[in-house]
Design a protein that fits this description.
The chain has 645 residues and is α/β, with parallel strands linked by helices. It has 20 helices and 10 strands. Helices cover 62% and strands 9% of the residues. Bound molecules: adenosine-5'-triphosphate.
Length: 645
């Protein structure tokens, strides 16, 4: 179905668009909401306001009661002083417009004048104090909201990140929704301030002359309607922008990133990438121009209607004055009140507009948190302190939106003190199986038991503490070399035994390499920062291995731990991955020479175990293992033969 937000291509570019090898980003389910909001009426917006205000006040209250009370309370007090100031002003005008000699009139007006001056001064002081409290709230709220988001994103199960919708929602919550919390509170306080100002003025006008009250309302309605319309349109445009922007961002990063620079040049991808970027930017720019035009038209219509309404108000006032319904002093104060009410109303309308708009984004944040909370694994409560065996019983895992299981009814046992190896061709399910054993994924079928207890009943934190994973796709953490190793077990208490950072680095053949860095272990491993350094792929892998060894866990999972290592480093690392009575090692590697000494080898094909046994047993059988091993060995033997011959 065509939607308003996907990239739209001009007809002459359709063909090129279809040929594009870059996948189009799919519209998320949140488009339903966008359509819903597009049809939201002004009254629906108004109806949502009390709930929004309640939410904003709740948010502020939870962050700082004192500043919340101050921001709202002081603004209300300032409103009372506005009423007082206007009433005092009428008193002044009444005295000044009265009959009699000017000095006498001025003298008579003095008390009211002093009262008006005092009210204005006090009101100014209260407004400043309220502004201070309001400004104090913002950073505190930002902190709380960000914290809540990152507490959630770091707690959700790994499987959530395989869900494309989750990634999209996370982007929206983080990029926009999160920062709107503070704005919502800010706008709510402004809304309260504006409404208090309008009410204060209305109260003064009612005391002076009640028939003037409807005039106040008449002046405000068109302004409010325009603001709401513009907010809604902007929101829809932003939804479209985020989807397109993500795609452009991917392209933009490819073209301006040091990691991709070499490949882009060697494949001469420049023209291709620029053409893709141009295609996206054309769509984006057109959308932005369309929005700017429609917003300008809406604003122009809104301002015209507002002007006509103001004219009507002045005409009514003139008529009342001529008809003798209101006195001159009251009419003059009414004009002042109108000005004051209009500026308060503008503030309230602007705040409503922004509040409504920001609330839409904040809703994304809240929706994401709600959904993400359901993806935080509950886990059990049974304590874990090591294991003798981990049994997988008919375990399967199917990734979201995939037809076949990546791991299909696998049963195996990992025993303490053993080294087991998982081998198989690319995509056969080794990494997925290793992640299941590590507890990073929960099986979609079957059971994993630690010493006979279903892993789902175990305390997940304690289970995770037993496991170290040297992952195939590690991340270059922008920390120092020491921190990069220490994060393997950053919370290890001083009295708990375990290797120190340098010992772990030595075991992973990383010590000499780190010592040669400009600041040794304290060298920052990120070129984006001053004095930062980068490492080669193999050097990084040594560091990752050092981190895994530093973690000193009972279950060590090594997924291609030596893919980027030179022969010497590989040899050194495998010396330390040998049998250890307190540890089980799960080893994944395509270099089959490294699995020869494993206690048991499991051969995977399309997610299933097709062979198992030790090296000699598997070599004695016809099968995938022997085939792969001989293919690899043949290369070495041929070279050795050539060298010898
Ligand atoms: N996050 C994911 N979402 C969807 N499918 C995935 C995901 N990760 C892996 N797969 C699919 O699951 C299957 C098994 O992948 P896995 O990474 O476990 O294989 P592997 O044996 O480790 O491969 P390799 O030797 O290339 O590392 C593959 O078909 C792969 O495309």
């Amino acid at each position: 179905m065509a939607t308003v937000i996907g990239p739209r291509h001009p007809s002459d570019e359709d063909e090129a668009a279809e040929e594009s090898p870059l996948p189009e980003l799919a519209d998320g389910h949140w488009m339903n909401r966008a359509t819903e909001f597009a049809h939201t009426s002004f009254w629906a917006v108004a109806r949502r306001l009390p709930a929004l205000v309640r939410e904003a006040v709740g948010l502020a209250w939870a962050t700082s009661r004192r500043d919340t009370i101050a921001s709202i309370g002081l603004n209300i007090a300032a409103g009372v002083l506005t009423t007082l100031g206007l009433l005092a002003t009428t008193g002044v005008l009444r005295q000044l417009f009265a009959a009699g000699p000017t000095p006498d009139r001025i003298r008579a007006a003095l008390p009211a004048l002093l009262l008006a001056a005092a009210a204005v001064t006090m009101r100014g002081a209260l407004t400043i104090a309220a502004g201070w409290a309001q400004a104090r709230l913002i950073p505190q709220i930002n902190y709380q909201v960000e914290l809540r988001l990152f507490e959630t994103t770091t707690a959700v199960e790994l499987a959530a990140f395989d869900d494309a919708g989750f990634a999209e929602e996370m982007d929206r919550a983080r990029d926009r929704g999160m920062e709107e919390a503070a704005s919502i509170v800010d706008h709510t306080v402004n809304l309260v301030t504006g409404l208090v100002g309008v009410l204060a003025t209305a109260a003064a006008v009612t005391v002076i002359q009640p028939v003037l009250l409807p005039c106040l309302l008449l002046a405000a309605v068109p302004e409010a309607a325009t603001a709401v319309k513009m907010a809604r349109r902007q929101y829809l445009a932003l939804l479209a922008w985020i989807t397109r922007r993500r795609r452009m961002y991917l392209l933009a990063r490819l073209m301006a990133d040091r990691h991709t620079a070499a490949e882009i040049r060697s494949y001469q991808m420049r023209d291709f990438l620029l053409a893709e970027y141009h295609r996206m930017m054309t769509v984006e720019t057109r959308a932005q121009l369309r929005l700017a035009r429609s917003q300008t038209v809406t604003r122009a219509i809104g301002l015209s209607v507002t002007g006509i309404a103001a004219f009507g108000v002045y005409a009514v006032l003139g008529g009342l004055l001529l008809g003798g319904v209101v006195a001159l002093a009251a009419a003059a104060t009414a004009l002042l009140a109108l000005q004051s009410a209009r500026s308060s109303m503008r503030m309230a309308v602007f705040a409503t507009n922004s509040l409504y708009e920001d609330a839409l984004y904040f809703q994304d944040y809240r929706d994401f948190l709600d959904r993400a909370r359901h993806r935080v694994p509950a886990g059990g409560t049974r304590p874990v302190d090591g294991f003798d065996r981990i049994d997988l019983d008919g375990v399967s895992l199917r990734y979201p939106d995939t037809e076949t299981a990546a791991v299909d009814e696998v049963s195996l046992t990992v025993r303490r003190g053993e080294v087991i190896a998982l081998v198989g061709e690319n995509g056969s399910g080794k990494t997925t199986l290793a992640k299941l054993i590590a507890g990073l994924y929960r099986p979609t079928a079957g059971v994993i038991r630690w010493d006979g207890v279903d892993a789902a009943e175990l305390d997940p934190r304690q289970t995770a503490a037993q496991v170290a994973v040297m992952s195939q796709d590690w991340w270059r953490f922008p920390f120092t070399a020491r921190q990069n190793i220490r994060i393997g077990r950053h919370d290890r208490p001083a009295d708990r035994p375990g290797p120190d950072v340098e010992d772990a680095a030595r075991d992973a053949a990383a010590h000499d390499m780190i010592s040669e860095l400009p600041f040794g272990y304290d060298t920052l491993l990120d070129r984006q920062f001053k004095d930062g350094q980068d490492l080669s792929g193999g050097q990084w892998q040594r560091l990752v291995a050092a981190r895994g060894l530093y973690r000193d866990a009972r279950l060590l999972i090594c997924d291609e731990p030596s893919a980027a290592l030179d022969a010497r480093a590989e040899h050194a690392l495998f010396q330390h991955l040998r049998r250890h009575p307190d540890r089980a090692v799960v080893l994944i590697t395509h270099r089959l020479a490294n699995v020869r000494h494993a206690d048991r080898i499991f051969v995977l094909d399309h997610g299933r175990i097709v062979q198992q046994g030790d090296h000699d047993e598997l070599m004695a059988q016809e099968g995938l293992y022997r085939e792969l091993f001989e293919l690899q060995a043949a290369g070495y033997l041929a070279q050795a033969g050539e060298a010898g011959g």
